[in-house]
Amino acid sequence: MDNILNQIGIENYIFLSVVLFCIGIFGVLYRRNAIIVFMSIEIMLNAVNLLFVAFSTYHQDAQGQVFVFFSMAVAAAEVAVGLAILVSIFRNLGSISIDNLKNLKG
Amino acid sequence: MNTLIAITGLGIFCLLFEILNFRKGIIPFTILGLLGVLALNFCEFGSTESYYNNMITVSKFSTSFSSLFIILTIFLVALSHNFYENHPTKISDFVAIKIFLLAGGVAMVSFGNLAMFFLGIEILSIALYVLAASERLNLKSNEAGMKYFLMGSFASGIILFGICLIYGAMGSFDVVEISEYSLSAELPIWFPIGMVLVTIGMLFKIAAVPFHFWAPDVYQGSPALTTALMSTLAKVVAIATLFKLISGLNFIPSLENQDHLHTFENIIVFISIASMTVGNIMALRQVNVKRMLAFSGISHAGFMLMTFLTVATSAGVLLYYTAAYALAGIAAFSVILYVCKNQDDEDIANFHGLGKTNPLLAAILTASLLSMAGIPIFSGFFAKLFLFNQTIQTGHIALVIVAVINSIISVGYYFKLILAMYSKEPNQERTGKPFLIYAVAIISIALNVALGLFPSLVLDLLN
Amino acid sequence: MEMDTNLALLLVLTPFLGFLINVFFGKSLGKTVSGAIGTVAVAISFIVSVLLFNQITSTGKAIEVTLFDWIQISNLKINLGFLLDQLSVLWLLFVTGIGSLIHLYSISYMHDDENIHKFFSYLNLFIFFMITLVIGSNLLVLFIGWEGVGLCSYLLIGFWHKNQDYNDAAKKAFIMNRIGDLGLLIGIFLLGYYCNTLDYKLMYESIHYRATLSDESFTIIPLAALCLFIGACGKSAQIPLYTWLPDAMAGPTPVSALIHAATMVTAGIFMVTRLNFVFDLAHDVQNVIAIIGAITSLVAATIGLVQTDIKKVLAYSTVSQLGLMFLALGFGAYEVAVFHVITHAFFKACLFLGSGSVIHGLHGEQDMRKMGGLRKAMPITFWTMMISSLAISGVPFFSGFFSKDEILMTAFHHSIPLYVVGSVASIMTAFYMFRLMFLTFFKEFRGTEEQKHHLHESGSLITIPLIILAILATFGGLISLPGNSWLNEYLAPLFTKAAGEEHHLGTTEYTLMGVAVVGGLLGILIAYIKYFKQDNVPESDENITGVAKVLYNKYYVDEAYNAIFVQPINALSKFFRDYIETGLSALVFGLGKVTNKIAFQGRRLQSGSIGLYLFVFVLGMCAIISYIFLAQ
Amino acid sequence: MNVSTILIILLIGAFATYFSGDKLASKVALLFSLAALGCSIVLLNNYNAGENISLINAWIAQPKISFALNADGLGLAMVLLSAALTPVIIFSSFGNDYKNSKAFYGLILFMAFAMTGTFLASDGLLYYIFWELALIPIYFIALIWGNGDAEERRKAVVKFFIYTLAGSLFMLTAFIYLSQKANGSFLIEDLYKVQLSACEQFWIFLAFFLAYAIKIPIIPFHTWQANVYQKAPTVGTMLLSGIMLKMGLYSVIRWQLPIAPLAAKEYMYIFIALGIAGVIYGSIVALRQNDLKKLLAYSSLAHVGLIAAGSYTLTLDGLRGAVLQMIAHGFVVVGLFFAAEVIFRRFETREIAQLGGIRTQSPKFTSMFLILVLASVALPGTFNFVGEFTVLYSLSQINIWFAVLGGTTIILGAYYMLRMFQHVMLGETNSKVFADVTLNEGISFAVIIAVLLFFGFYPKPITDLITPSLETILQVINKN
C-alpha cells in the first residue's frame, strides 16, 4: 500500500496537531469549569496522539502507535483520579469552578 | 529490574494484607520488605544490563539513585504509622500507594525507553495526586489535589508532546538509538524543541521558577506526610530523571554540534538563579512551616539545576546534594509531623519552646535546618561546596556568587524557626515520644552528618 | 660589675618593696609603722645613691647595668638596663633625699587619714618609678618611669577619692600628661628610626656619626627634638600643657611638695638634659624651648600675683620657675637649668611643706585671706618659709640667687627680650612670694575664733624636714658659685660643648647681678608696701574686677581648652553615637528590611488562582522556546 | 602526641560536660579546659624541643581536602591564648548559676574546640569548617542565656549570625576559586604557591577582607558588635572579645596576607587607614557610652583596629606587635568584662550613671580593676604596652602620621577609661552595698593580672615563639 503521507505532507499533520494542542492549552487557560478544563487537557493529549500516529507512519515504525495506547491508558487513569478529586471538592464546596480554589495562597 | 519487580510485588502484598485483615503487620512488613529490596538493589549495583529490549537499563546511576529513593521511602513508611494512627483503614492503601510511587520513581531513573520514562512519570504523578487529595473531607487537601492534578496533567501533556517531537525527529523511543542519532551532524529542529518541552515538563515537577507556583499551595494543602514525600522523594526523583534524560540522550553534545550549548546554558543559569532567588525571598515572610519549606525546596531546586552545567561530571555531586537535602528534609518533616500532629495548621507558633519541651527533637530540627542552610559539618554544607566547586570549574563565578548571596538570605528564614524553638516560651505541652518518629529523625540526621564526615562514600559512587 | 648590679637593684627595689609591704600589710601594720617602713625604704635608696655618688665622683665613669632583653623590634633591641652617670646620680640624690624628708614629714601630716598606708605605698611607688625614670639606660625604660610617675601623681592627686572634683583634677593631670607622652613616644619613634637604637650612649654615637654625613634624613632630628619637647611640656607643665599642675594641688600637701614641685615636674628638664646631644643639633627647636619657657614663666607669674589660695600661689610659682629652667635649656645651658632644678627643689619643697604646716595648723584652711599673724604661733614654719622665700626671690647669697642669676645671665647673652621677660617674671616672683608671706604670717589673724584658739606649731616630724630643707635652701647655691662651679665640672662629661665658658665673671655679669638683686628687692618692697604698710587684703572672689579678674581666673585658659577641645570631642562622640552608629546599623538592617519588603510584595503574585499559575507556566514555556528560536 | 589531642580533649569535654548533668557541668568543663591547657603546654615543650606535633590526613579525595593541623609558633601562641583563657572564663562564671548549665558549659567547650581548630587548621576548608563551627555555639549562648529584652536580643544575635556568615561565605567562594588554581587542593602550602594575577588577588583579598573585617570587626563593619556584647551573657562576651576576635586577626596574618600579597601591598595604606580610623572612631564613640559593656565593646573596637593596622603593615614588627597585642588584649578585655560582671552581680546594673563610690566599699576590687584599666590604656610595664608600642613603632616606620593618629589611642583611651573608672568606682560611697570580691573572683583577676604584668616586663618567651613563623609568613608574602 502506498504511504498516505505522499498525498498530504507530514508538515500538515504537525501543524494540525500543534493547532489542536494550542486549542487545548487555551481551553485550559480560559475555561473555569473544571470538567471543561479536563476536556481541554484531553484535547492536548489527543493532539499528541494524532501526531504520534502521523510520525509512526512517517517513520514506517509501529512503536509510535503502541505509544498512543500507553498515553490513552494513562490519560484515562489520570482523568479517573481527577474526577474523584473533583467529586470530593463538589461534596465540600458545592461547585466545580476552579475559581473557588483560592484558599491556599500568599 | 528485579528491584522494580520486587517493589511492585511489595505494593500488591500491602493491599493483600488489608484484605487478609492483617493491618498491624503492614508497616513492619513493608519496612522489612523495603530493606530487602534495598539489599537486592545493592546486589545489582555495578552491573549494567538492560531488560525487555532496553525498556529498562540498570546502571550505576539508576541503582544508586533507586537506593536513595528506597531509603527515603522506608523513612516515609515508618512515619506513616504514627500519621495514620487515627484512621487505620487508610494505612494499607496509602502505604501501598507510596510503594507504587516508589516503583514509578525507580522506573523513571532506570528507563531505557521514553515509553518507560513516561509511564514512570505518570505512575509517580497519579500516586501523588491521590496522596495530595487524600484527606477527603479537608477542603485544603482537595484544593491541593486539584491544583496539583490540573497543572500536573497539563505538564504531562507538554512532556508527551515533547516525547512525540523527539520521536518524530529520531524515529525511535529507544534511549540508546536516540543518543546515537543525536550525535549526527544534521538534526531536525524538532529534537531540541522536544527535549526542551520534556525538560520544561520536568522542571515543573521539580518546581523550578517559573513553573513553581503549584508547589507552595500543594505543599501547604496536602497532608503533612504527603508534603514530606513531595519535598523529598518526588523532588529527588524528578531532578534525577531530568539529569538522566539530558545526559542519557546526549543532549548536550548534540547541542554542541549545533553550537547552541550556550543557549541551553543561559536558560539553565537563568532558571536556577530565578528559582533560588524567588524561593528564598518568598520563604522569608511565610508563617506556615510547610509552605516555607516548599519555597526553600524551590530554591534548592535552583541549586540542583546548577549541576546541569556540567552534566558529564556532576552526577555524583547531584546524588550527594539530593541525598543531603532529602535526608535533612526527612528529619525536619518528622519533627514537623510530631509537632503538628493535632494542630489544624503548621504555623510557626506551634514550634514555640520546643527547645524546652523536647530538646532532642529541637536539636534535630535545628541540625536539619542548618544542613539545608549549608553550615558545616552537616552534609548540606559539603553538598553546596562540591556544587560550587563544580560550577566554578566551568567558570560560572557569577552564578556561584548569586548562590552564595542566596544561601545568606536562606539563613534568614531557617533561623526564624530556630529562634521560635529556643527563644520563645512553650505555648502547649507536648506529650508522648512516638518511637518511630524519634527513630526516623535520629537515623536520618545521623546519616546526614555521616555523609558530611565521609562525603567520599557517596561522592565517588558515580565517578 | 656584680656589685653595681646589686646596688642598682637595691636602689630601685627597696621603694618597690616598701610599696608592696604597704599595699598588702599596711593596714594591719598600723599607721606609724607603715609610715616608718615607707620612709626607711626611701632612706635606704638615698644611702645607696650617696654610695653611688661617691663611686662616680671618685672613678668619674658611669656605671652601666643590663638586666635582660625587654622588647625586641627588628632594627632595635631594647633591654631593661640602667645607666648611672653623673646626671642620674645627681638626680637620685635630691629625689631620694627630699623624698625621704617628705616621707618623714608625711608620717605626722597624714596621721589622721585612715588610708595612710595607701598614701605611703603610693609615695614609695612614685619614688620607685622616679628612680627608674632617672637611671634608665634607654628611652623606653625612661618611658616606664615617665608614665609610672604620671600614674602615681594620678593616684595621689585623687587620693581623697570621695571628692569628684579631686578625681577630675587627677584625671586631667593624667590625660594632659598623656598628650605629652604621645609627643615623647613619637619622638622616640623618630629617634629609633634615625639611630636604630634607643640606648643613650649608642644614640649619642650614631647621631654624631650620622651628623657628619648630614644626609637629608637629618631633618628628622629637629622633628624628634620638637616631639620630645612636647613630652617635656606635658610633664613639666609648660605652655600649652601647664593647666594640670595648679589643679594638682588637690592632692595632699606633701604630694604637692614631692611630686608637683621638687621631683616629677623636673622630669622634663631631666629628659632634655639627658638628650642634650639631640637638642644641640636642633637650634630652631631650642629657640622654641627658650621662648615657651620665658612666656610660661611670665604668664604663670602674672597669674600667681593675684591667687589667694596659698598652694595655688606656690603652684604657679613652680610653673614659672620651671619656665625659667626651660629658658636656660633653650640656650643649651643645661648645667644652669640643672642647678636651678636642684635649688628650686630645696626651697620649693620647703615652701610647700611650710604651707602644709600652716594648713595643718589651720585644719585645712588654704585661703590666705583667712590667715595672718601666724608668725608668733608657728615660728619655725615662719622662719623656714621666710628663708625659702628669700631664696626664691633671688636675694643674694641664698641658693636661688645664684641659680636664677645664672639663668638670667645666659638669657642676657643670647637674647635681650627673653632676658627682660625672665627678669620681669622673677620680680613678680619676689612680689607674690612676699605677698604670701605678709598675708600669712604678719598682721593679726583673720580666721575664726576657734581656729585662732587652736593655732599651734606643728610637731617635730614636720619641723625637722622644714629646717633641713631651709638649710639646704640657704647654702644650696654653693655647689655652683659663679666663676668656679663645682656642678659644671661635675656635669661636664655629659655635654658636648664645654660647660659655662660663656660667663667668666666680668662687669656685665656684676651689673646683671645687681639688676637682678634690685629687681628682687623691688618686688619685695612693693609687696611690703601693699600688704604690710597699707595692709590691704585681697577682696573676696565676686568683687575682683578688671585685669585682676582675668588673672584671678587664669586667663580663662581652662575654659578655653574646655570650649576648644573637650566640648567638641564630646559633641562629636554624641554625634557618632546617635547618628553614625544608628545609621550604619540601620543600613545593615535595611538590607534585610528591603528583602522582606520584596518578599511581602512577592506574596501577592502567589494569588492562588490556577489560571494565573498556568498562564505564567505557558508564558515561561513560550519565552524559552522563542529564545531558542531566536538563538538559532 | 600531636595537636589533635587538644581538639579531642575539648570535644570529649564538651559532650562529657553535657552528660554530666547540671550539677557537675561547670566543674567538669573547668577540668577539661584545664586538661586542654596542660596538654597545650606539653605540646609547646615538644615543639620547642623540635618534635613534629602537626598532623595531616587525607580526608576527601576530589576535591583534595585533608584533615591537616599544623602548629607553628604563631598557631601555638593563639592556641595557648584560647587554652589559657577558656579555664579563666569558665572559672569566672562560677559566681552565677545558669539554667540548663550542662548545655551552657558544653557549648563553651565546643566553641573552644572550634576556635582552637581554627587556629590549628592548615587546610583551607578544614579551617573554614572550624571557623563556621565556632559561630553556632556563641549564637545559642547569646540567644538563650543572654540578658536584656528578648526581642532586642533576638534581633541583635540574628543580625550578628547572618552578618558574619555572609562575610565568611564569600571567603568560602574565594577558597574554592583558589583551590581551582591550586588544581583542586585546599592545603595551605598549595594555596601559598598559587600564582594569581593582580586582579584575581584583589578580589580574593576583598573576599577574605569581608569575612575578617566583619569578624574582627573593622569599621564600618562593626555594627553587630556593641549590641551583641551587651546582650550576650558575660561569658559569651568574653569568648567573643577574648578569643573570637583574635580568630579574625589571626586569619589575616595566616591566610589573607600570604595568599594575596600583591593586593596586600597594593592597598596596604587603605587598610591601615581603616584600622586607624577604627581606633579613633571607637575611642570617640566610647566616650559617651552609658552601658559599661558597650563602652568596653567600643574600646575593644579601637584596640583591634590598631592590631589590624599593625598586621597590614606587612613588616615583621607590625605582625609581631599585632600578635603580642592580640594576646594582651585577649587577657585584658576578659578581665575588664569580668569586672563588669562582678559589679553586675552586686548592683544588678551596668548603667555607669547608677554606679560609683565602690572604692570605699571594696579597695581590693578597685585596685584590681584599676590595674586592668591601666593595662588597657597600655601603661608601660603591662603586656599591652609591649604590643601597642611595637605596633605603633611599625606604623611609624610606614608613615609617621599613622603612628601619630594611631597614638591618639593613648590619649583618648586614657580619657574614656579613666572617665569610666571615675564614675564607676570613685566618688561618695554608694548607697547599695558592694560585697567584697569572693575568693573565686579574686583568683580569676589575679591570674589575668599576673599574666599581664609578667609578660609586660618579660615578653621574650612569646616573642621568641612567634617570630620564626612570622618570618616564614613574611617570606611567603615577599616571595614575588
From TrEMBL, chain A:
GO-annotated molecular function: NADH dehydrogenase (quinone) (non-electrogenic) activity; quinone binding
Sequence intervals crossing the membrane: 12-30, 35-55, 67-90
Topology with respect to the bilayer: Multi-pass membrane protein
Gene3D superfamilies to which the protein is assigned, alphabetical: 1.10.287.3510
Top EC class for this record: translocase
Keyword Amino-acid biosynthesis in annotation: no
A Pfam family annotated for this UniProt entry: Oxidored_q2
Keyword Translocase in annotation: yes
N-terminal signal peptide: none
Location(s), subcellular: Cell membrane; Membrane
GO cellular component: a single term: plasma membrane
Name of the protein in question: NADH-quinone oxidoreductase subunit K
Source organism: Flavobacterium hydrophilum
Gene symbol of the encoding locus: nuoK
UniProtKB/TrEMBL annotation, chain B:
Subunit-level organization: NDH-1 is composed of 14 different subunits. Subunits NuoA, H, J, K, L, M, N constitute the membrane sector of the complex.
Function: NDH-1 shuttles electrons from NADH, via FMN and iron-sulfur (Fe-S) centers, to quinones in the respiratory chain. The immediate electron acceptor for the enzyme in this species is believed to be a menaquinone. Couples the redox reaction to proton translocation (for every two electrons transferred, four hydrogen ions are translocated across the cytoplasmic membrane), and thus conserves the redox energy in a proton gradient.
Reaction catalysis annotation: a quinone + NADH + 5 H(+)(in) = a quinol + NAD(+) + 4 H(+)(out)
Transmembrane segments: 6-22, 29-47, 67-84, 146-169, 189-213, 225-247, 267-285, 292-312, 318-339, 360-383, 395-415, 435-458
Protein name: NADH-quinone oxidoreductase subunit N
Protein EC: 7.1.1.-
Similarity-based family: Belongs to the complex I subunit 2 family.
Keyword annotations: Cell membrane, Membrane, NAD, Quinone, Translocase, Transmembrane, Transmembrane helix, Transport
Membrane topology classification: Multi-pass membrane protein
Keyword Membrane in annotation: yes
Organism of origin: Flavobacterium limi
InterPro entries reported for this sequence: NADH-Q_OxRdtase_suN/2 (IPR010096), ND/Mrp_TM (IPR001750)
Record-annotated NADH:quinone oxidoreductase/Mrp antiporter transmembrane domain positions: 113-410
TrEMBL record, chain C:
Record membrane topology: Multi-pass membrane protein
Residue ranges of every copy of the NADH-Ubiquinone oxidoreductase (complex I) chain 5 N-terminal domain listed in the record: 70-120
Compartments in which it is found: Endomembrane system; Membrane
The entry's keywords: Membrane, Transmembrane, Transmembrane helix
Protein name as it appears in the record: NADH dehydrogenase subunit L
Pfam family, one: Proton_antipo_N
The keyword Ribosomal protein is annotated on this UniProt entry: no
Domain NADH:quinone oxidoreductase/Mrp antiporter transmembrane, residue spans: 137-429
Segments crossing the lipid bilayer: 6-25, 32-53, 89-107, 119-137, 143-161, 182-200, 220-245, 257-279, 285-306, 380-398, 418-438, 459-481, 510-529, 610-630
InterPro entries: NADHpl_OxRdtase_5_subgr (IPR018393), ND/Mrp_TM (IPR001750), NU5C-like (IPR003945), Proton_antipo_N (IPR001516)
Ranges in a coiled coil: none
Protein's gene: nuoL
Gene3D superfamilies, per the entry: 1.20.5.2700
UniProtKB/TrEMBL annotation, chain D:
Compartments where located: Endomembrane system; Membrane
Keyword vocabulary terms for this entry: Membrane, Transmembrane, Transmembrane helix
Region forming the signal peptide: none
Domain NADH:quinone oxidoreductase/Mrp antiporter transmembrane: 122-408
Provenance organism: Flavobacterium limi
Bilayer topology annotation: Multi-pass membrane protein
UniProt-listed InterPro entries: NADH_Q_OxRdtase_chainM/4 (IPR010227), NADH_UbQ_OxRdtase (IPR003918), ND/Mrp_TM (IPR001750)
Listed Pfam families: Proton_antipo_M
Official protein name in the record: NADH-quinone oxidoreductase subunit M
Entry's family note: Belongs to the complex I subunit 4 family.
Membrane-spanning intervals of the chain: 6-21, 28-47, 67-91, 103-122, 128-148, 160-178, 202-223, 235-255, 267-288, 295-314, 326-344, 365-386, 398-418, 439-458
